[in-house]
Design a protein that fits this description.
7-stranded mixed beta sheet
Length: about 170
């Protein structure tokens, strides 16, 4: 059984630890150890991630599977792009499932919860960035109706990578 709920600020350490673990599990094999170390210790530190929870404009959704933490999503207010044509938007900045929970519907449940949040908040666009080489994630987002509208740079350690920007009209 999957359940989704908003995160309380006292759960910030759980989100930070889950963030770091899922990111490392997903991307370490594609990057050098030096770049991963720099990213994890400077750009994606536990302290930085803890600080994000509870900040204005950030929304965290926690997925549980049989009452065990299974993944989370972070939505963020703010950034807009010309492709939105002035429509109100919200970004999914992270949507991660713990490795052992992949294939159990966690991603789909989180995506639906993100879309529901966006609609309830009166948003017309929901968007995200995804690493151009993450074909599995791109396919998942396309199945949900997201379409590419641009590309932006993402610095992982010292490695300049490129993310596709995808959006869905609500």
């Amino acid at each position: 059984m999957i359940s989704i709920r908003y995160v309380n600020t006292d759960e910030a350490p759980l989100i930070a630890d889950m963030s770091r673990k899922t990111f490392y599990d997903t991307f370490a094999s594609y990057n050098t150890e030096a770049d991963m170390d720099k990213f994890m210790n400077v750009q994606f530190s536990r302290e930085m991630l803890i600080h994000e929870v509870g900040q204005s404009g950030n929304y965290f959704l926690l997925a549980s599977y049989n009452n065990e933490p299974a993944g989370y999503a972070k939505l963020k207010e703010g950034e807009t792009w010309p492709a939105f044509h002035g429509k109100s938007a919200i970004e999914i900045t992270r949507i991660y499932a713990i490795r052992q929970m992949i294939g159990k519907g966690i991603g789909a449940a989180l995506m639906q919860a993100c879309i529901d949040h966006a609609i309830k908040a009166g948003k017309q666009i929901i968007w995200l960035g995804v690493w151009e080489k993450n074909e599995k994630a791109i396919s998942f987002y396309q199945r949900w109706g997201f379409e590419k509208f641009g590309v932006h740079d993402f610095l992982l350690g010292d490695d300049l990578q490129h993310d596709w920007l995808l959006m869905k009209t609500l």
